[in-house]
Amino acid sequence: MSETMSETIDTQRKARRLVNNEVRQCFSYAHNEMMCMRSYEKLVWEALEAIDLDQDDEIYEIWIVSHWLARQLEEHSQITWEWNDVCFWGRMTTGQAIAMDHVIQQIANR
Where are the alpha helices (DSSP H) in 23-101? Predict the structure, then answer.
């Protein structure tokens, strides 16, 4: 099903609003710095081991997201986990604005 230009613009507007409201911050950089700490590294590996990853799944970025968005992402087969009441999303793409991710646009269009 092909979208008209107006529908595409509307989808992008909704996706940007969703990202602005529900994505908290990128955790990838802090994660990389903190991996040097042994206690933190152990906690991260324990959390990731609890996630059922397919062999083809590869996490490129880690984002802190709202609980609502974590549930929505989970419904779309995205990798999410919670630790200390903080929700994380293992983004399996990189190199573009989050609002351009297909899954984000699907959620925004609900």
Answer: 28-34, 38-49, 67-75
| Residue 36 DSSP SS3 | coil
Stated pTM of the model = 0.73
pLDDT in tens, the chain (110 residues): 566 888 889 999 999 999 999 998 787 655 555 555 555 556 666 666 666 666 567 888 888 899 999 999 999 999 898 888 889 898 988 999 999 999 999 999 98
Indicate if the alpha-carbon torsion angle 43, 44, 46, 47 is positive or negative.
positive
> CA 41 to CA 11: how far, in whole Å?
38
Side chain identity at residue 7, one-letter code: E
Query: In terms of Cα–Cα distance, which of 92, 75, 84, 73 is closest to 44?
Result: 84
